[in-house]
Structure formats: structure tokens, C-alpha cells
Amino acid sequence: MTHGNGDPLERLNRLWSRLVSGLSGPRAEALAAYREVNALLEAELGLDHRPVAETSAAELRAATEAEFVELLRTVYVRSGLSLPEISRRAGRVLPRSQAYSLLKRGKLPTKPQQVRTFVTICGLTEPQVARVMELWATLRQRAEIAVSGA
Predict the structure, then answer these.
(1) Using an 8 Å Cβ cutoff, are 103 and 76 in contact?
(2) Cα–Cα distance, 117 to 119 (Å, whole number)
(3) What is the pLDDT of residues 34-64, one digit of tens each?
(4) CA pair distance 135, 55, nearest whole angstrom
(5) How far apart are CA 109 and CA 112, in angstroms?
(6) Pairwise CA distance, residues 62 & 135, whole Å
(7) Is the pLDDT of residue 77 over 50?
(8) Residue 89 class from Cβ within 10 Å (0-12 exposed, 13-18 middle, 19+ buried)?
(9) In the chain, what is the greatest distance between 2 CA atoms, to the nearest angstrom?
(10) Any idea what DSSP says for residue 46?
(11) Which helix or strand (DSSP H or E) is residue 80 part of?
(12) Are 55 and 89 a contacting pair, CB within 8 Å?
């Protein structure tokens, strides 16, 4: 079978290489390669490996620390990734123990970069990541006010 863009498997291999190298390099290139891989898998093989239930903008809300942790759990479950895989992809930003800690404790995570990395690896879009970070900042500010007011 002849394709306008060359052999699909060769193209997939090139895209996969760009994606993997993007894990330690430019994020924009990795994201572009990831999207191309998804499109190619869907077009050529009929595969759509996106999570069945994606997180909607309306679900990105949390009024308490416990609700925020539950939001992180939901995003994690829908990602289809394991915590060790998330930690591996995050590198030094999110050690395995911290990945577990984000979901196991009922408390607000203390490191915003870990939260950002976690939800990004779990597949949230940049606007969704920004919303999660707004929620985190609001809840963090409330916690600081409660501690200083007590």
C-alpha cells in the first residue's frame, strides 16, 4: 500500500523517536509528535488509545483539600498510567514516593511543580492544567490564612 507521507510504520518509528527524545528535550516537539502518533494510529490502524472518559472542564473543581486530592485521583485513574510510569516520566520532579503521596494523603500537596507535572503527564490539556493550578493556589492561600489566623 502506497501512502503520500511514506510507509506508516516508518513514519510511526520517526515520530516515536521524536516523542521519546522530547521527554528530556523541547516539550512542544514532544507534544506535536504525540499528537501525530495518535492521529497515525487512528488513521492507519483504527486505534484510539485516548482515555475512554476524559476529564471535562466542569469536573475541574475543588472547594476543599480533600476534593482536590479526589480530583487528582480522578485524573490519575482516567490517564490509564501506573504511578511508577508517571514517576518515570516525571524524572526527578516527582519521585515515586511523592507520586504515591499525592494520592494517598488527604492533604493538599505542598509543591506546585509536582502537581503541574503530575496532571500534565496524566494527559490534561494546558488550559486544564492551568485550572488545576488555580485551584491549588486558591486552596493553598486559604490554608495559609487559616494557619496565620489561628
Answers:
(1) yes
(2) 6
(3) 667 767 777 777 665 554 446 777 788 999 9
(4) 15
(5) 7
(6) 7
(7) yes
(8) middle
(9) 71
(10) -
(11) none
(12) no
**Cell numbers standing for residue 40:** 497515525
- The answer to whether 120 and 94 have CB atoms below 8 angstroms apart is no
Of 60, 55, 66, 64, nearest to 122 by C-alpha is 55
Residue 109 and residue 114: Cα distance in Å, rounded?
Answer: 8
The 10 Å Cβ neighbour count of residue 22 is 17
User: What percent helix, strand, coil does the chain show, rounded to 5?
Assistant: 70, 0, 30
pTM (two decimals): 0.63
* Rounded CA separation 36/131 (Å): 26
What is the identity of the amino acid at 89?
Answer: R
Q: And the C-alpha cell for 7? A: 510507509
